[in-house]
Amino acid sequence: MKRIRGLTALIHDGVQLTTELVREGMNSTSRSVQRVTDQIEPIAGPARTVMALRQASTEGVLTAVQVVNRTIQVVTDAGLDLAEYVTTQRAPETEKQSPPLAPAMTMRSDVVKTASWAGDAALGLVNAVVGDHLHRRGNGLDLGMSFRAGNHYVPLTRAALDQSIKTPSRKVALFVHGLATTEWSWCLGSESYYGEPGVSFGTMLERDLGYTPIWLRYNTGRHVSENGRLLATELERFLQAYPGNLEELVLVGHSMGGLVARSACHYASEDSLRWPQLVRHVFCLGSPHRGAPLEKLGNVLTRVLGAIDLPGTLIPARLLAGRSAGIKDLRHGALLDEDWLGRDPDALRSEGTCEVPLLAHARYFFVCATVTSDPDHPLGQIVGDLLVRTPSSSGPVTCSQTFSVETSRFGGVLHHQLQNHPSIYEVLRSGLTQQEAV
User: Fold this and answer.
1) Which pLDDT tens digit goes with each residue over 47-91?
2) Using N-to-C axis directions, what is the helix angle for 115-137 and 2-37, rounded to 10°?
């Protein structure tokens, strides 16, 4: 019911946006015509009158559409309220009580193209594009933030974690996915790489080194700093409720996930939370620490198209400008509230992002990839892994102090393949094994 409500609300929001785009397009057309008729003195006055009447008529029609749309939404919501009430009243008492663990889609690569996979993938994409809007509106499609253990999303209580983690290890590895995906993406390509659809970095670290794998699921359309703050708080709750004696926490972030992990470490350290002291390793796989070229291109296109007063340019500019806060943060790899509060996120000239120090006691592993088999090939240097270039994924620029950093480059690996490629797993395994040897 929550998803149905969210979908209907998003459809009605889409109708509202469409009427606004129609209004903007017609007003732009009128301005273009008026610029011509104003130069012809005999018809300038009558033309203005005709356009004013046309604008009033159009405004009336569009306003009526918006009123009817919102009226239908109110009626639909009332119907859903009634249906939910009737269903709840008829359900047995045992069914009225929500189970402590919410089932999740199986993390196997062979579920691709199933209905459950398509729905999950669509949710990830919608959250990436308009996730900030969903959050502001309280829309049921908002993924929020949740922790996954095994095949369940787990409330951060001792009872729920006891139920979901049967043999808790002293070591936990948290996997943070990237933009437009969900935690399922960590098993993408498992069968082709390992001959087994259920294999992932998490299952292999559990098998090889005894780490308990936990996966994060979150709304990638919100600001990185908002997700970072929330993750910092939720990890502290996780630490308090964990059923075993947790001694080590490993953070593994893919793409945006690496930025969210770094942001969480910063805010947790600022608030003197306990869990950052358990972090000994942070792995960032293809993370745009210095920005992503596609978002930089989107920023330029938004400004250029918006500067041309034509329907064919203003409407695309309006749509581009509506991309989520999370996407806009990728322009320069923004991690903090200060990077966007009081700033124009679409300004052509950026004031630059604030420097965010790394954890002084942790080792950082920055993994880069290029589409070319030779990482030093000019084409590979230009396009990187298709989404992030090597200088950006090599880590942030830090000036305040030195940190323990290891950068690895791999040729012939695409951006999405960094989540489950055997060579990338070797970086994780060897990095963690080196610590055990010490």
Assistant:
1) 788 778 877 877 788 788 878 877 877 777 677 566 655 655 555
2) 60
- 429: phi > 0 → left, psi -120 to 50 → alpha, else beta; which? alpha
Q: Strand, coil or helix: what is 101?
A: coil
CATH number of 102-291+352-437: 3.40.50.1820
Packed helices 293-306 and 311-321: angle between N→C axes, nearest 10 degrees: 140
Do the beta carbons of residue 389 and residue 356 sit within 8 Å?
Answer: no
For the segment 6-32, what is each residue's pLDDT rounded down to a tens digit? 777 778 788 787 888 787 877 877 787
Which CA distances in Å does 315 have to 21, 23, 66? 6, 10, 18
- What does the alpha-carbon distance between residue 249 and residue 304 come to, in Å, rounded to a whole number? 45
φ/ψ of 215, rounded to 5, equals -115, 140
Would you tell me the crossing angle of helices 224-241 and 256-270 to the nearest 10 degrees? 70
- Beta carbons of 170 and 245 less than 8 angstroms apart: yes
For the chain, give every domain's residue range.
2-96, 102-291+352-437
d(CA 138, CA 230): 16
* pTM above threshold 0.85: yes
Q: DSSP of 359-416, one letter per residue? A: PTTSEEEEEEEESSSSTTSHHHHHHTTSSS-HHHHT-----S---EEEEEEEES--GG
Contact 410, 368 (CB under 8 A): yes
